[in-house]
Amino acid sequence: MIEIRNLHKSYSTGQGTVEVLKGIDLTIEQGAITAVVGPSGAGKTTLSHCISLLEKPTSGQVLVDGRNLSALSGQALRSERRAIGTIFQHSALLRRMTVAENVALPLRNLGVVHREMEDRVAELLDRVGLLHKANAYPGQLSGGQKQRVGIARALALRPRILLSDESTSGLDPESTQQILDLLDDVRTELGLSVILITHEMDVVRHVADQVAVLANGRVSEYGPIGALVADPQSGAGRQLLPVRALPLPAGFDYALSVSYRHGPVDPEWLTRLSTGLGVRVALLGGSVEAHGEAVLGRAEIGVAGRPEAEVRSYLEQLGLVADPRDPVSTAAAASTRTATAPPSEGAEREANEKIGVRA
């Protein structure tokens, strides 16, 4: 487990001192994948460097299994840093070395005997599916293959923590999925804690267990993916599972933003709402997908025929959380509106059928 406690990092510039990290507190559980996201300038890269101790924090602690790495220096720090394997954004492979030589580099620097080193390199390349590329050079590999070699190298010293710093940035969708699957596999098989530094919300949603959002050097939101998506007030939840909604059609009284709780939800909840309360329901937009053994879901609906409080209470009984339509969604819908006329009956019926409403 890795704990980050009240972490600060400042730099001195010609204009004075700039504080980049302003008291970060995070706990990454053993065997979990924690994503750290945020806009450019939020402090993601600086946090990554402080976690891996490439840079020392100005104050605060980085603890691995209870040991404060940020208080160490010299040989003691180099020894403890082996607990953290880092995958860099552009793989950082040495182009004049073969794939096998790149993976062997940490082992060679540690003085591992040749035969043992060869066996370990073969094991790692086999794990990432590139044993047949052992004698190739980085220039002969695709971007995704380079990153898989980077993962093999990061695992060479048997770390307990894997730090992935924008490792899927710039990759095509297929290569991205291969890297994410590989990270998930090694996390499960080796019991690693994985810290995923990224700006790609699709990557976060598909592989992470929890997410921390950095903004202006602080953690603005932090929690399990399911809990954030289930919270209608969570900005991170809206980004993780975005919904592009239609305007409220004429004849409907109000619109609701609906989120699935982190638990079982009847896939025919719209039908149950319509028949159970005798209300008219229009699906304005929605997104539902599997996340591990759970289901993430968000939708926007129009309702007519019953008071809002009564409908929200009924949805609560179905395992759903409903709030008045989010202003962000309203603005997004307005920006896509091409006419003042409501959607056709056919379009409304088609949208309803996609999520289980029966006529």
Description:
The chain has 13 helices and 14 strands. It is of the alpha/beta class and 359 residues long. It folds into 2 domains: 2-224, P-loop containing nucleotide triphosphate hydrolases (Rossmann fold); 241-354, ACT domain (Alpha-Beta Plaits), CATH 3.30.70. A 6-stranded mixed β-sheet has the order 6-7-8-3-9-10, sandwiched between helices. It has a 4-stranded antiparallel β-sheet with strand order 2-1-4-5, with helices on one face. The protein is elongated.
Topology (SSEs and partners):
Layout: E1 2-13, E2 16-28, E3 33-37, H1 44-51, E4 59-64, E5 67-68, H2 74-80, E6 84-87, H3 99-110, H4 114-127, H5 143-154, E7 161-165, H6 173-190, E8 193-197, H7 201-207, E9 210-215, E10 218-224, H8 225-230, H9 235-240, E11 254-260, H10 269-277, E12 280-291, E13 294-304, H11 308-317, E14 320-324, H12 327-336, H13 345-354
Parallel strand pairs: 3-8, 3-9, 6-7, 7-8
Antiparallel strand pairs: 1-2, 1-4, 4-5, 9-10, 11-13, 11-14, 12-13
Helix pairs in contact: 3-4, 3-5, 5-6
Report the radius of gyration as a whole number of Å: 24 Å
The CATH topology of the largest domain is given as Rossmann fold
Helical run tally: 13
Q: Given the helix and strand composition, which structural class is it?
A: alpha/beta
Low-pLDDT parts are: 328-359
Measured distance between first and last alpha carbons:
52 Å
Which sequence of SSEs, written as H and E, runs from N to C?
EEEHEEHEHHHEHEHEEHHEHEEHEHH
CATH architecture of the largest domain: 3-Layer(aba) Sandwich
Binned strand content: 25-35%
- Helix percent reads 25-40%
For the secondary structure, the number of strands is 14
How do the strands line up in the largest sheet?
6-7-8-3-9-10
Count of discrete structural domains: 2
